[in-house]
Amino acid sequence: METLKVEKVSIVSHRNMEDENEHKVHIRNQALQLFMRYGARSVSMDDIASAVGSSKKTIYQYYTDKDQLVGDAIEKALSDNCLQCKTYHQIADNAVHEGFLAIEQTSELFRNMNPVLINDLKKYHPRAYRKFLDYKNEFIYDVIVANIKWGIEEGLYRDDFDIDIIAQFRVGSIDILFMPEFYSKVKEGMFLIQQEVFYFFLHGMATPKGLKLIEKYKKHKPKNNSDAKD
């Protein structure tokens, strides 16, 4: 009888832990949506509590302060993007196709993103901002380098430029998109701006063979494993 009681308590405890984890994930996801839409600074813990449908006191049971919540939310966004990048590399037909798959996903991200978010992280949440910088300067840089090398091997990109310089240039162009002096003067939305930057970057590397693929994908933008072939 004692053994049965212990097993019953263990099962209940496990279920409670799952419920607690689900609630924490719900808080993080709701907070991320708010941060993406309004930026981090203008969103209060009261706003997050209202979106979650619970009290602010409940949120503080999972997060000691807003800074911790911001960090968790940003880490989730970066983790999701990392997984998507790896998936695109696996399903892409070629290097150009991989770029178009990534830019479609990024466009959707920027449609729902307020450019002030990155500046808010830089000013008020340095630990979260450091996560963003590390991700951009390390993972995204590596993804770009791998894509360039793949494209050169396929004869889609030229082989007469310094890969590191061009990859660093592409990574640096991401920062420009979030500069207030830039996005405040450009009427187009963020997703259109980064799309134009991508096209400019791609055309600069492409061979005549690559240019043909670029034009094909521009007319029929792939959203998954497109059947457009080399």
TrEMBL record:
<keyword id="KW-0238">DNA-binding</keyword>
<protein>
    <submittedName>
        <fullName>TetR/AcrR family transcriptional regulator</fullName>
    </submittedName>
</protein>
<dbReference type="InterPro" id="IPR009057">
    <property type="entry name" value="Homeodomain-like_sf"/>
</dbReference>
<feature type="domain" description="HTH tetR-type">
    <location>
        <begin position="21"/>
        <end position="81"/>
    </location>
</feature>
<dbReference type="InterPro" id="IPR001647">
    <property type="entry name" value="HTH_TetR"/>
</dbReference>
<feature type="DNA-binding region" description="H-T-H motif">
    <location>
        <begin position="44"/>
        <end position="63"/>
    </location>
</feature>
<dbReference type="InterPro" id="IPR036271">
    <property type="entry name" value="Tet_transcr_reg_TetR-rel_C_sf"/>
</dbReference>
<dbReference type="Pfam" id="PF00440">
    <property type="entry name" value="TetR_N"/>
</dbReference>
